[in-house]
User: Fold these one by one.
Assistant:
Number 1:
Amino acid sequence: MNVKVFRRREAILERIEGRGKVFIKDLSEVFGVSMETIRKDFEALSRLEGIERFHGGLKKNNRRIEEYHYYYHHSKSLNIEEKKRIAYKGFQLIEEGEWVYLDGGTTVANLFNHLDLRRGVTFVTPSLILLMRYLVEDLEQIFERNNHRLIFIGGAVNTRIYTTYGVDFNHGIGEFNFDKMYFSVDAIDIKGGLTNSDEIPYGIIQQVRGRAREKILLVDHSKFGGIRQRTALKLEDLDCLITDESLQTPWLRLLKENGIQYIKA
């Protein structure tokens, strides 16, 4: 599935969740594609739990679709192999006994693939994906074996990006300080810095950034060269950048000048 199809189908799901039903003719006009293309989208999406076809459209039935969202975002996300490599490199930086903050991104979620590499780490997160992994994949035994702890920070729930946020989150996160903060952003640019389009992850970063001794950015190659609406961090605020992107001389020079560690995954 290419990026355009992925984003269009994701947008269709958001419309179904918000409106209850969508129609082929309407979406053909909205996305500027043929009705046959939308029919193919509907055919694929109708196989998902909680989605049902009807004549001329697609609707949400009485079953919940959260299970699909988890599977779709986490297991079938774009550049999954690159994200796994990035997460492996990131986990190697963790020291035993550290307190580590993990954000709600899918790249960061792959850090939980390597729990046996360290002992005695306390992970603090608002990520519903990580909480679901802990429960569904029975990670409790791995946590116990390695003397890890998981602290989930509650708050208002956003099911589009699978994180808690808001006043209760801000209050909860204020109880902690971290050795390391692992996070992702929507875009990274040599002039524009680290930017997000959504105000929720942007706001979360602002709450956590001052509480972490090291700020470690995990991003794949698709995030480079863009600028979104909100500046989450300036590049010079980073301590480490881990990516599969092979950076060119201007990037390398800038990172070196600001004392930012660059790790190629």
Note: The mean pLDDT is 88.
Number 2:
Amino acid sequence: MNDLPLHKNANIRTADFSMLNFLCQANVLPDKIAMFSSLKEFGLENYVKVQAAVLLLVKRGSVDVELDLKTYHLEAGALFVVFPEQVLRAKKASEDFDPICIACSKNMIDELIIRFDDNTRLILRFRENPLQQLDKGKFEQLNASFEFLKKKFETTETNACRLQVLKNHLIGLLYECIGFVDEPLTTDVVKSRGQVLFAQFIDLVVEKHREQHSVKYYADELGITPKYLSAVAEEQTGKNAKRWIDEHIALDAKVLLRSSSRDIQKVSKILNFPDVSFFGKFFKRLVGVSPKAYRKTTD
């Protein structure tokens, strides 16, 4: 396999979803979903910037990995989640390390995430806690679901609705994962002021993003300056406060455009834009296409 391309920032290589098309032992729906059980071909002994979302379930053995420079020990029964743009490195794997993995392209993530309520908190939950150690019963149940999805890859190759079949099974599997971890987290770790402020900020964005689009509003609600709020968000996630607000508005807009027959002017009004032209420019800047073009792609 060819070397992964160097990322523009230092000696970090990028792992694009398209490279999965060339894996020897992988089930791939091009540019959408892939399943594989070996990490050797990714060159993860060096730092790699992942351009996909990955669910990794450890069946046997163990491995130490770094995710955004934080080290995690994965052993049998571990569920590990990686998001696009995160930096990954495998430090040490046991001889019997045996994972099963699902990868989703960025486009596929957009199609999936709108199916989940409270998606911002969900993403943050897994970003803060990417490793979930499952007990034997939960592991066996989830492993069976992984294997079932793998079987569907193999038996639907000639099915005209293959994407819809695989996507719906994947959505069920993701809900299963959420159900396993959607319990009060018990931790003795004391959160920093920045972590607490950012969590409060996201709670406000989830609640108020349709009415309030400015960083100043959220900063005022938290009793801090807009500059400090953006610095906190940047420190915690690599994205400033305005980007978090805009991305959540854009995600809500996608949901409204895909899941309702409301006209674009009505969607614009729901999201509190001054006019449909302003909304259209905002949406194209965030999503890359106009609201009308985006809706056509979902028909």
Note: Residues 1-11, 184-189 have pLDDT under 50 and may be disordered.
